[in-house]
Amino acid sequence: PSGRCIQAVRYRNGEPVDIPESERAQFKTRNGRTVLDGGGVKPDVLLPHDTATGVVKALLDQHIIFDFATQFALKHESIDSAEAFTFIDWDGFMQFAKSKNFDYESVSEKKLKELKSIASSENFALDTDIQALENRIKAAKKNELNNNKARIMHEIEQEIVGRYYFQRGKVRKNLKNDPEVDAAVKLLNDEARYRAILAGNS
Description:
The chain has helices spanning 54-61, 64-75, 90-99, 107-121, 127-141, 144-147, 149-176, 179-188, 191-198; strands at residues 9-12, 15-18, 26-28, 34-36.
């Protein structure tokens, strides 16, 4: 509506280059809010980006959650509706992961391995310190599944729902607990804040 170009990059020698904010032209929306061109479309409400932690990514990459959902579907003829289904057998999943000898290398372990290699090449006598740190990392790593229980349970529910209701069911399940949808609904129900954002007063 403002008439601006929203392309976030320009090309130099065939390569995309970000456009600095100082070089972006200003435009006004119908309500008088100042917006810049060349920056893509930025959301009015920013939410924290949920990235999978190392243990969650490892469970997905090693197909532990996928295989568990397959086993679950073989044992259960049906489940509640996609929106209503709740997975509750956390201990069962933990046992399954253990039976599959689930393990992964954390970022800390990778960095420690690098440190060990560097210390060795520089003849630093750090073996005792590195071993102590290695033991502490292993101890902390044992709690990673429980520390990420909520995210893992979400992934399990998504995978199980997909076995019964396919992609449509996964979308319906996800929408019920989607923080972006929740934030949008909350904003639409808050007329004062909604109008303030449109007016550029947020």
